[in-house]
Amino acid sequence: MRSFDFAPLYRSTVGFDRLANAMDRALTNDVSANGYPPYNIEKSGDDEYRISIAVAGFSDDELSIEMRDHQLFVSAKKAEVEDAPEVTFLHRGIAARAFEKRFQLADHVRAVGARTENGILHVELLREVPESLKPRQIKIAQNGKTIEGKGAPEKAAKA
Known about the structure:
about 160 residues, mainly beta, Immunoglobulin-like, 2 domains, four-stranded antiparallel sheet, three-stranded antiparallel sheet, 2 helices, 7 strands, elongated
C-alpha cells in the first residue's frame, strides 16, 4: 500500500485542508472491502446527481439517510423478527446484512429527496451555487469613469 505525506501541502497552502483530507481519506480507504451493497453514481443534469443503491430485502423503515460534515451517510439495519417460525435456508443469495455507505459531497451539494423503486434506493442530489460565487461580468470603465460614476482623482494644478 502506498503512503503519501501531505505535510508540504499543508505548509504551503491556505484553505485547502478539506481537499487534502478528502484525498487522504480516498487513498486510505480499502476500495475492495467497500463493495456491499452495490451502487451507482449518476449525473442527470448540469447540477443534478443521483446515487442508486441496491437495497433488496430492506423496507423503507429499515433505511436511514443522513447528511453531516459534507458527507452523505446511507445505512440499513434489518429489524429483528422474534415471532418468525424457524426457517432453514438451502441457499441464501440475498444478503440482508447491515451496512453503512459514506459519500463525500462537494461544496454546495445537498440531498433533495430519496425514494425506493424495485429494490433500489435513489438519493437525488442537487448542487446549488450561491449567487455570490457564480461568475459575473465586470464592466470596464470608459472615459476615465468608474462604475460608481466617479472619475480617477485628478492631479492638483500647480501654480
